[in-house]
User: What shape does this take?
Amino acid sequence: MNNDNQQSNTISPRDAKWREELRNSMSAKQRTAIPRAKMPELDPAFRVTCSAEVNQGLSQGQAMLEASRCMDCPDPQCVTGCPVGINIPGFIKNIERGHFHEAAVVLKETSALPAVCGRVCPQERQCESRCIYHKMKKQPVAIGYLERFAADTERLSGTGELPARLAPNGKKVAVVGSGPASLSFAGDMIRRGYEVTVYEALHEIGGVLKYGIPEFRLPNAVVDVEIDALAAQGVKFVKDCVIGKTLNYDDLLNLGFDGIFVASGAGLPRFMGIPGENFIGVLSSNEYLTRINLMGAGRPGWATPAPAGKRVAVIGGGNTAMDSVRTARRMGAEEAFIVYRRSEAEMPARVEEVKHAKEEGVKFLTLHNPVEYLADENGHVRAMRVQRMELGDPDESGRRSPVPVEGAIDEIPVDLVIVSVGVSPNPLIPDSIEGLEVTRRGTIAVNDLTLQSSLPLIFAGGDIVRGGATVILAMGDGRRAAQSMHETLSAR
Ligand code: FAD
Ligand code: SF4
Assistant: This one.
């Protein structure tokens, strides 16, 4: 993991003094005796009837108590588990002493989107997985809940000022795509005095944060605050503009851009290539979620047809699969189930998403893999044939590989199938720019450190380089690309 902001963890003498006093205000035994905070959640029976956010956020009292569990370790391993090296004890200790604005300021030093990351980062595999509490066989400090608390408190208090901006430096940069990589790049460059224009193919800004992750997990209002703040700082957003179609690379050069950051994501759905995938009622997660989240399918007053089903199968075990199956429950599915070829232990989805899905009545058909879809006389899917699997030896991912159990094939009735078995990089940019080097996986090839591509003006990051990763990694790339593009353009 790349910690590109470790300097924020240096403690000033003033901070060291209050941190020392705070540390001495409670014994380690008292701190470790406090149970981990429980996130207040909406009742499952109610939440499947609407798109309201499931996690309600910690109260002030809960947050301050949870913050007091943190031991302020001299060598905090949680920080090494964060892909962007957030000063974790620094913001947590500010929450403990009730200085919420300062906590948000510490977060903003490193993370452009703390309210988003506090909600969707897989903390259980990152920062929280390295918390010292694990050594005591206790639950880790709830770093994600506290990050969300500090960011939300700042947002709702309305006290957050816009970051200071250097005087315009006369240089302009273009950004392709408007997901987390682009938003963090745009924020860093506008503050350095660049003129920044973001081009987005869709009619909404935010990338997967808007069209992929549903409202019940990440409300649009949370993302909009960040976008509005960037617009208020002077970032220009151009929607409905497909780079490579509406405008091409030469057009961008003719518009006088000094640098281009490409963060066009990995939104090209993959299918399994099995018979029947073209039947009506078999579609990708990407299409399903985009129709509902971005194009109003199922909402009064919107013309987009809603793909409806009473028995809905979602194929896959990642976050996208969980978001789809939980959305299907909210769209009226009586039975919604995950079909996954490995066991639950190998599922890449966040633990919290699996827990929430189960609470909402989602069934899990693990160790099964679809081999064919069957249709009725109108060409609409009516059933799926699934192969039973067992676990063999670990593969290159370290997970035990699924092996078919010979002759064990079942037929299951379904009327909607959502395929969520992975995504590939969006090919338009790599295909449309001559001389841009692309890897065998279709991602843009970049220098690992600077994120500069084979064309010196173009830098790239996020999923178009990583091929489907996480919000925090995309955001970290945006910051790193901004730093190296700035160094390159300043040296000219
Ligand atoms: P994206 O967010 O994909 O944004 C790319 C943008 O570029 C899109 O808006 C696209 O329309 C635009 N674009 C593409 N081509 C062009 C073009 N030619 N011209 C102009 N614009 C273009 N990660 C987590 O950390 N936690 C989670 O819980 C989580 N859940 C997820 C759930 C779903 C349903 C999905 C799909 C992904 C999830 N992820 C999650 C992954 C995470 O969202 C992505 O890794 C991240 O959004 C990548 O950011 P990005 O900026 O690279 O691209
Ligand atoms: Fe606090 Fe855990 Fe990090 Fe130690 S490892 S500083 S206890 S969050």
